[in-house]
Amino acid sequence: MAMIEFQDVQKYYGDFHALKDINLKIEAGETVVLIGPSGSGKSTLIRTVNGLETIQEGKLIVNGQDLADRKTDINRIRKNVGMVFQHFNLYANKTVLENIMLAPRIVLHRPEDENKQVAMQLLDQVGLQSQANKLPAQLSGGQQQRIAIARSLAMKPKCLLFDEPTSALDPEMIDDVLNVMKEIATDSDMTMLVVTHEMGFAREVANRVVFMDDGRILEDDTSEKFFDGEPTNERARQFLGKIITH
Amino acid sequence: MISIFQNYGGELLYGLGQTLLCSIIALFFALIIGSGFAILEVVPNKFFRIIARIYIEVFRNIPLLVITMFFYVVIPMYIVEISGFVSGTIGLTLYSSAFIAETVRSGIQSVDPGQMEGARSTGLSFWQSMRYIVLPQAFRYVIPPLGNQFINLVKNSSVLAFVAGFDLMYQGNVIASDSLQSMSTYLCVGVLYLILTLPLSYYMRYLEKRLA
């Protein structure tokens, strides 16, 4: 069964048609990279998957539940679908360790000892165990983003969404974050949907590349076909040409 | 001034006590009610937002004296006998709660929306996100303006004087007409109000520094 499935999804902001006829199926364990020019709807699309944006028409099935159905408990879906944001969104009033431990404690009722152990292990995985007791504001952007990834992982989700996770970072810090993401993609059976402009990452770890423009999906290829063959869509070719020569 | 204190010390002290009591009760409930309506103003449910909006606009835009008179005159006429002190305290509570609600709401809205999204994305409910993430940050922002509201509240408690609430202002009026020393009397009353409000003012400043 697909982890995420869009069926004829339409999304409007008032009169603005933000997502048009979206059909997309992402299988469990797949890593899919979503690219496109700004304003193309990729962030909107990824935010619908965990209900941060609602859809107006169509079906959106995530982990077996239809998000358009009003009876669906969004918090239950979010337990299994983590999200990493462009601006990290770490809790400014909590230490690094508390950022990671809060949701497992409140939502999953994970025992305190185990919770701390899992959190420290995750901090180790992202290389920041020594920062456990600092506040987010005391860390660099790259460090904050790795903490944010650890925070998502602490819920042991089946699926992780990344919304331009490296766009707000200094160039030097991008690799640290991408490496953590690559590890997750290769070492676990996590389903990953990633909005990014990092084409190296897309080529290396993505199973598929989806190209969007003007609210529509114009291209949905395996990453080999997308990068080594040529995208069939003219707009996608143009975009790829620009982004790679830069 | 000294003679006023000597001759009417008991009355002034009693008035000070009533003012303090009224202020503490009103502050306690206004903070709870105000915070409650502030949260209702930002919930996703539109119905609750409208209810909160109506409450706040009504009590913010009617003079405190009118609200208090309503409780002093109308409620005893139709519902239950209440004293001037009680009606004044209720009026002050409702009036101040509307201002506190606006203050707290602006605090909530000055917290980066990303904080709420981050919390929601990990599976916390709206209320859990509010309680653990948004409100603690919002209260830090609103301590200075909230301090202003608290000081206003203490001063506004002088509305009790109009409804025989036996507060500091009421005693001042009584003493002034009894002693015929208006200036000295009201100077004493002013000093006594300062004794209440200055420490409050300094305490809020201390809190602000400590939490910043």
TrEMBL record, chain A:
Q: Which GO terms describe its molecular function?
A: ATP binding
Q: Which UniProt keywords apply?
A: ATP-binding, Nucleotide-binding, Transport
Give the domain of life.
Answer: Bacteria
Output the InterPro entries linked to this UniProt entry: AAA+_ATPase, ABC_ATPase_HisP-typ, ABC_transporter-like_ATP-bd, ABC_transporter-like_CS, MetN_ABC_transporter-like, P-loop_NTPase
Give the ABC transporter domain ranges.
Answer: 4-239
> What SUPFAM superfamilies does its record include?
P-loop containing nucleoside triphosphate hydrolases
- UniProt family annotation: Belongs to the ABC transporter superfamily.
Cross-referenced PANTHER family? AMINO ACID IMPORT ATP-BINDING PROTEIN (PTHR43166), PHOSPHONATES IMPORT ATP-BINDING PROTEIN PHNC (PTHR43166:SF4)
| UniProt protein name | Glutamine ABC transporter ATP-binding protein
UniProtKB/TrEMBL annotation, chain B:
Keywords from the UniProt entry:
Cell membrane, Membrane, Transmembrane, Transmembrane helix, Transport
The domain of life for this entry's organism is Bacteria
Q: Does the keyword Membrane apply?
A: yes
Enumerate the PANTHER family for this protein.
GLUTAMINE ABC TRANSPORTER PERMEASE PROTEIN GLNM-RELATED, MEMBRANE COMPONENT OF AMINO ACID ABC TRANSPORTER
Coarse class of the primary localization is: membrane
Q: How does it sit in the membrane?
A: Multi-pass membrane protein
Q: Where in the cell is it found?
A: Cell membrane
Has keyword Transmembrane? yes
Report the protein name in the record.
Glutamine ABC transporter permease
Q: Which family does it belong to?
A: Belongs to the binding-protein-dependent transport system permease family.
Q: Which residues cross the membrane?
A: 12-40, 61-79, 183-203
